[in-house]
Amino acid sequence: ETGVTQSPTHLIKTRGQQVTLRCSSQSGHNTVSWYQQALGQGPQFIFQYYREEENGRGNFPPRFSGLQFPNYSSELNVNALELDDSALYLCASSFGLAGVLNEQYFGPGTRLTVT
Amino acid sequence: SQKIEQNSEALNIQEGKTATLTCNYTNYSPAYLQWYRQDPGRGPVFLLLIRENEKEKRKERLKVTFDTTLKQSLFHITASQPADSATYLCAEREGGTSYGKLTFGQGTILTVHP
Questions:
Q1: Which range among A6-15, B3-12, B67-76 has the greatest average pLDDT?
Q2: Of A51, A112, A113, B56, which is the most buried if we count CB atoms within 10 A?
Q3: What is the pLDDT of residue A8?
C-alpha cells in the first residue's frame, strides 16, 4: 500500500453537476498528478501540481481544474459533468518535478459515475 | 503524438510458465519505459523502469527489455503464479519535459491458471 489516499471512494453525480475529488499525497512528496482511467483503458494524464502551481497539463478541457494546498494535498474539480466523465480518477504523488526518475505513487482512486 | 500500444488485451497461461507481455511505441523513442501492475479497484503499482540506453532490467522474477529498433519493450514474469494475475500497464515517461507526464498503454490482463 502506498501512503496516497483519495476520497471519496465512490461517487454518483448527475450530468451538469460539479464534483470535487480529494487526494492526500505520501509524506515528503510535493508533487501531485491526476489521471483519468476509463473502463478497460490505461490512465490518461490530466495535470500535475508542484508546489501549489499547475506545471503540466494533458488534453483535457478547462472544466477540469485543480488545486494544491500548502500541505501538498490536492483537489480535482470537474464542472458541467458529462456522461463521458464517468471513470476512475487516480492521484499520484512524487517528490520533485518528476522529470527524471522520480517514481510516482498512485492512490486507490475515486470511481465517479455520471448519470 | 506518441502512442503506447499493448498488443494483447488478455493473456492466459498455466502456473509455472513464463508470461511475456508486449508494449510498442509508435513515434519517437521514449527516454524511459515503465511497467506497472494494477489490481481491480486499486491504483497502479510501479514495478520496473528501463531507460532508452538499457537493453535489459531484472528484478526477482521480472525482466524487462527495450529494443529501440523494433520500438518495443517486452515484460517477462518467470515461474508465474496465480497471485501474478492482474492488469499490467506499460507507460512512457517523456524525456525533456519539466513534468512527469506518463502516457500509458491500455493494459494487458494476465490470468495465471493453477
A1: A6-15
A2: A112
A3: 97
Mean pLDDT, chain B, whole residue set: 90
| Bond preceding residue A70 cis, omega within 30 of 0 | no
* Beta carbons within 8 Å of A26's beta carbon, 6+ residues apart: A2, A3, A4, A93, A105
Say what the pLDDT of residue A51 is. Answer: 85
Q: Which residues of B touch A92 (CB under 8 A)?
A: 43
Note the pLDDT of residue B17: 97
User: Backbone dihedral region of A80: left (phi > 0), alpha (psi from -120 to 50 degrees) or beta?
Assistant: left
List B residues 18-57 in contact with A (Cβ-Cβ < 8 A): 32, 41-46, 49
Q: Is the CB of residue B76 less than 8 Å from the CB of residue B62?
A: yes
Give CA–CA dist B84/B61, Å, rounded. Answer: 11
